[in-house]
Amino acid sequence: MTSPEPSERRAVEILLIEANHGDVRLIKELFADAGITNEIHVVYDGDEALDLIHQHGGYTDAPLPDIILLLC
Fold it and tell me: What does the alpha-carbon distance between residue 17 and residue 42 come to, in Å, rounded to a whole number?
C-alpha cells in the first residue's frame, strides 16, 4: 500500500474547545509559530462541541474533527 500523494491528502480538522478567548488566540499563535497551518475550529463550551460533533443546530455542515483539543 502506498501513501497518497501530498495533493491527495485532506487537511486534518482540529477542534479546540476553550472558553477563554485569550487562550484561543494563544493556541492559534503557537500553532502558527510551529508551522501548523491547519484550520482550527473553535467552540467555547461542551454543549457547543457536542452540537458540532453530532452536526446539530448551526453545525449541520461543519466538518467532523480528526483531533479534539480540550484545555483545562
Answer: 6
Q: For the chain, what are the domain ranges?
A: 6-11+18-70
- Let me know: does 9 contact 2? Beta carbons within 8 Å: no
| Contacting residues for 40 by C-beta, under 8 A, at least 6 apart | 14, 15, 16, 27, 28, 31
Detail the DSSP E strand segments found in 10-66. Answer: 14-17, 40-43
The residue with cell 454543549 is: 47
Q: What is the pLDDT of residues 30-40, one digit of tens each?
A: 999 999 999 99
Amino acid symbol at 12: V
Query: pTM for this structure?
Result: 0.83
